[in-house]
Amino acid sequence: MLNMHTEYQTIGKPFELRGATIEELRKKLVTRTAKVGVVGLGYVGLPLAVEFAGAGFRVTGIDVQESKVGRLNLGDSYVQDIPSSTVADLINQHKFCATTDFSVISSLDTVNICVPTPLRKTKDPDMSYIVSACEGIAKHLHRGMLVILESTTYPGTTDELVLTMLEQSGLKVGRDFFLCFSPERVDPGNTNYQTRNIPKVVGGITQACTEIGALFYAQALERVVPVSSTQVAEMVKLLENTFRMINIGLVNEMAMMCDRMGINVWEVIEAAATKPFGFMPFYPGPGLGGHCIPIDPFYLSWKSKQAGIEARFIELAGYVNGQMPHFVVTKVQDALNELAKPLKGSRVHILGVAYKKDIDDCRESPALDIMHLLIARGALVTYSDPFVPNLRVDDSQLISESVALACAAADCVVIVTDHSTFDYAAIVEQSATIVDTRNALKQFSCGKIVRL
Ligand SMILES: NC(=O)c1ccc[n+]([C@@H]2O[C@H](COP(=O)([O-])OP(=O)(O)OC[C@H]3O[C@@H](n4cnc5c(N)ncnc54)[C@H](O)[C@@H]3O)[C@@H](O)[C@H]2O)c1
Fold this sequence. Notes:
Blueprint: H1 15-30, E1 35-39, H2 45-54, E2 58-62, H3 66-73, H4 84-92, E3 96-99, E4 110-113, H5 128-138, E5 145-149, H6 157-167, E6 177-181, E7 200-204, H7 207-218, E8 224-227, H8 230-261, H9 265-272, H10 296-306, H11 312-338, E9 347-351, H12 366-376, E10 380-384, E11 390-393, E12 396-399, H13 403-409, E13 412-415, H14 424-430, E14 434-436, E15 449-451
Parallel strand pairs: 1-2, 1-4, 2-3, 4-5, 5-6, 7-8, 9-10, 9-13, 13-14, 14-15
Antiparallel strand pairs: 6-7, 11-12
Helix pairs in contact: 1-7, 5-6, 8-10, 8-11, 11-12
The structure holds nicotinamide-adenine-dinucleotide.
């Protein structure tokens, strides 16, 4: 927990002025009278806003999408992990409201920035959302305010980009306002770990920034981990996601090697995982998906290139992971060959299109790549996903079909996402042949199952 009696260093300005500003904010935080703002109400921002509102703060969410703001103000949640009833209760208790109007920031004490950070086609960071959010905040930045960037980004963003933009207001960081970076680690669909009980790393531009940032999170979250700078906090997130991406790359390469050698990779991993130290199981799959693992490591490789270091592990894992949709299509072709059917003109049914099980998010989903490749080779592609009622693939708008009917009608079924609600016994019975990219059919053994 935070040391409430830390001595503050002055940053070339009179101690009393800084002290008074920070004391005022500190009082508002511990008495829950601080007015909290969250910019960007998506998978990250909405759960954060709900957590602080639930902890007793008055929270204002700011988003550029009028449709999202309108839905939230009617108590209608579009984020799967946040029930509409929770939003509706907070709205009724006047603990939460949403707006598209950035001028509300003049009346807020804190603002967390949770906007998207995608990659451009060239795999360079797209900072446009952060820049636009900061422009909106800078206009209304005022003395005594805490600003925290949560969007995943390259090390140096908070210091080089956000700080520069905010100080154009004439206010000085560490004295007039406070600026931190705190990586978001939320894992949509994870019922054990959610915003409240995932430890929160936070690093500030100055020591005072870190302390007030840590105090802020300590009001609503179970554990706060202060670090010495914004750059360290930014790098923590990139280490975590790069670690996953590279290990998934390794195990995907293992899967392709095992396939060539006729070894069951899933059995290998399961047996290796019995080692009680020095090994952590990762699993192969149809390719990387989601808004984080396929993207964040390239923020790091982009930045490290500027520092004169090639991120070779990242590039290599990116290449191997990028091969997986092609590998899956080869498996489909092999499975159809066994039935003496060409891929062109065959009906291929995809089970699960979200990027991971039991969620509705299709961003960067490998299912999209697999479907694109299959369509390009002339296959007639359909899909079922209980979480995704319709899906755009290339130029076609597809609708989720009945699992039983579509499996029975298909020449080949491909399990891309292993949702818990699928009836796997029925799927095995109804399908002519099945390519299983997730080992969802581990319990079944029959000739028509082709494993990764
Ligand atoms: N989704 C995850 O599981 C996850 C996990 C950890 C970290 N992150 C990171 O968190 C950040 C946000 O991701 P997300 O999944 O919540 O994205 P999202 O697309 O679900 O939500 C972002 C929201 O920001 C809004 N927005 C865009 N520009 C804006 C602006 N200028 N002002 C105000 N609102 C604006 C969008 O309308 C959208 O509602 C990204 O950097 C992402 O990498 C995401």
